[in-house]
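Long-time lurker. I teach an intro course on protein structure, and each term I like to show students one example going from raw sequence to a predicted 3D structure in token notation. This year I'd like something fresh instead of my usual example. Would anyone be willing to generate the tokens for the chain below so I can use it in lecture? Attribution to the forum is fine with me.
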Amino acid sequence: MRVPVYLSCLLFFCFQLSAFSHNGGNDSDDEDRFLQQPVGIYKTTTPVKIDGNVDEEAWYNGHPANHFWEYYPTDTAQAVWQTEIYMTYDENNLYIAAKCYSKHSNYIAHSLRRDYESTGSDNITFVIDPFNDHTNAFIFGISPFGVTREGLVSGGGRSSRTDWDISWENKWWGEAQVQDGYWSAEIAIPFSTIRFPEGSRSWNFNAYRYDTYSNLRSTWTRIPMGQSIINLSYMGKMEFAEPLKKPGAQVSIIPYAIAGSVKDYDSENQPTNSNMNFGGDVKVGISSGLNLDMTINPDFSQVEVDQQVTNLERFELFFPERRRFFLENADLFGNFGNSRINPFFSRRIGLKNGQEVPILAGARLSGKLDNNWRIGLLNMQTAKADDLDDPEPSFNFLVTAMQRKIGKQSNIGLIFVNKQTFEEVENSDYEVNEFNRVVGVDYNLASPDNRWSGKFFLHHSIAPEKLEQPFAHGAELEYRSRNLRATWDHQWVGEEYSAEVGFVPRRNFFRINPEISYYFFPENPNINQHGPRASSRFYWSPESGKTDHELSLSYRIYFRNGSRLYVWSENKYTYLNNDFDPIRKGDAVLPANTEYNYTDLNLYYTSDRRKNLYLSLRPSAGQFFNGHRYSMRSTLTYRYRQFGSVSMDFSYNRVNLPQPFVPADLVLIGPKIDMTFSRSVFFTTFVQYNNQIDNININSRFQWRFAPLSDLYIVYTDNYYSSDFSVKNRAIVAKFTYWLNI
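-- Reply from a regular --
Happy to contribute to a lecture. Here you go:
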């Protein structure tokens, strides 16, 4: 472990030199002309009607947010088509209104479903950081059709791909109207929805807008193009006329009732299993920054099915969490380590090898104590699951997390994860440990000028027996400017590091992963930016020395219409410590203690998502271990205005390996119909044909949102064998859930 620790110390020293050699600010070209006057917010004494018309006098008492800056396709001029934002408030709600000026009135939306996708759609999003910590924020967005979305930003918002969660939901309201020369919107956000320090008068604020006709993205506070559009380093201020009081009672009860039938055709003489069940969640605002979530007998049958992929890799695949109970403040528990060395992965609770494990009850306390401290405490109890393919006793899951802000945006975090059963397992048929524990510390770094960021972590696992090398460690340092991005990343996982409630698909290795990218910004009407990227990954194990490498050289082109083209070649070296069947058909294996060096060529293209018909393509051809592989992955989508879409996911892999392997054609086809009849009635049908796992899945889901965050779901699921189309199992479920504030 000495090598990675020494490397971490060196990276930490380099980071501190970089961080403290700058005197702060948002960017090296931060100038007074980029600063915005704070949004002035005065309390209204007259009601505000949320109808999208922005005609109440209360909107115009304060100072608006205006003079938006371009973010895309350039970032050095004010936006051609401007946006104006107004705010007011009363005892219970924060009100925000916007006027979004445009040359046209033919606005685009992907659907009428809540939590729409912003790319390729007209919309405006408000980013609110009530604790002024530049680390966590709420986002609230709305389209010209009055469709809303909300989410949570974590990690400073430095990555628009990993630092936000659009799955979070809460109660608020919004409406929009298309006017002559602009579209307007009004929203009302209850103060009980937003966590904020009592007595505060000033919050960090920013807003960004997508205008499809001009293909313009603009922000109120200027953000350089090299940074994420949700980056919390670049925030203005919203200032209230009076200190805010703690909101009143913040208690929400969310009961559910469910009825369904399940038939397992694989088991002979197995009758249809019909049942009815009840349960629910309770949300309690303990303070203006802390929230308590409790659940009894939770059910997640309405959650959309995971999208399958063809797996030709040696390790477990990652699927994101979709269950609502686990989503608020999920980053506080789940962002320790990194995506491949994560000590807590909430999908380990209530799921095992794709099968559901009943959860009896659970509670989670999470949020902010003040501007510097965040805490999290989660406890859940599962039931005994003897009917699984791999039975297990009841388990208690306890997770505690704490985070302390350091400087402007850095923080240090501590986590403790405990999985434990109180049943006798030593002499039973259960092949499980009595307990598994992980304790860890993470240090997340960010320089004041936002050019440097990094992460350093050390985790230790504890089990009933003594473990050899029970540590996991990693360090990352990234430099980012307008033209250049460079990253150093290394990881070390001990042979017996065990995180049963985490996501750690590989152990007993040391890895380094340097990457560098450079971007040119040409004076070209069709190309926005382009440039090369080089990356490498090297793996070593104590027993075998170097076991893997991946060397990649690519060129990326970003067109002004939003389409992208990547071309890259990748060389891989693999030393197999164990037998491996890459096709997963069970016909043959590549033997252990053999090595392979192979190269392929890849292309990726995605078209303009503003069009009704758009597609993505990813062909690949080249060597594969000691044979060859030819593949094509594509998605074709047709959107009928905002009322729905039909898409087709297609994946084909032709794998030719020498005998005793048989040439394999692996096909994954996934047509999907997504209809949004209104802002409250939705229907989705998703079919997945996957001959690698011999399965055809049909999942149809009807949703009626009859009140805010209150739904009726009817879900039908069918599974067949792809080889002969015989039925595996079939289920239909109806679920009613209601959100009640008291």
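Some talking points for your students: The longest strand covers residues 527-541. The chain is about 5% helix and 50% strand.
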